Amino acid sequence: QVQLVESGGGVVQPGRSLRLSCAASGFTFSSYGMHWVRQAPGKGLEWVALISYDGSYKYYADSVKGRFTISRDNSKNTLYLQMNSLRAEDTAVYYCAKDQWLLDSWGQGTLVTVSS
Amino acid sequence: QSALTQPRSVSGSPGQSVTISCTGTSSDVSGYNYVSWYLQHPGKAPKLMISEVSKRPSGVPDRFSGSKSGNTASLTISGLQAEDEADYYCCSYAGSYTWVFGGGTKLTVL
Fold first, then answer.
1. How far is CA A100 from the centre of its chain?
2. Torsion, Cα of A53, A24, B1, A91 (10° steps)
């Protein structure tokens, strides 16, 4: 049974950094591309970033390019999102999702609040 | 990376059918067969209901179906049930390994 568990969210001041993690189990993590998707309070879903199964390719939404870095450690079955220079508009629940093409399983999300 | 266009809300009575549209462009919806639909109950994670325009993952009732014509994809739910009340989001591959979501549609079962 696929399980994705996000962690690392919290309250952070504008301009500061935060690293999110997504622990995966129940499938062969190293065989799948993985996404981060976010949802601002009361708003819709927004795609954030994709990493290939082996970490060699990384792609980002324009809204986070240059500030966020997606990475993975296949030996630990864990996906990461390093978020730098955070802005108020980055406030959202951040979800990790499995499978480059299908986004077929999602975690429960972790809330990031950017506020002074 | 402009969001796909969905109606803000739709409604139907139990047993009826409803269709939710998702309009994009030739750079996303009509350009690729990677359109998917997600159901999201309040406070919960999204759940995949339809992938690759019209494929139903295991466990999804056959009351849910997907299609695409030109720049518009559609999700049809037949035999509406109370538990279908939720927010629904479409998502499309937009080229260059980027994805775009719709703004979401709130389905109310009357």
1. 13
2. -140
CA distances from A80 to A8, A36, A56, A96 (A): 10, 9, 14, 9
Decide if B47 and A106 are in contact by the 8 Å CB cutoff. Answer: yes
**Yes or no, beta carbons of B36 and A45 under 8 Å apart:** no
Average pLDDT, chain A: 97
Residues A16, A1: Cα–Cα separation, whole Å: 36
CA–CA distance, B102 with B105 (Å, rounded to integer)? 8
Closest alpha carbon to A44 in A92, A8, A109: A92
- In which element (H, E) is residue A73 found? strand A68-73
Residues of chain A found within 8 Å of residue B93, distances taken between Cβ atoms: 101
Tens-place pLDDT, residues B64-87: 999 999 999 999 999 999 999 999
In this complex, which of B47, B48, B99 lies closest to A47 when CB atoms are compared?
B99
Residue from the list B48, B96, B100 with its beta carbon closest to the beta carbon of A104: B48
- Segment B48-70 mean pLDDT: 97
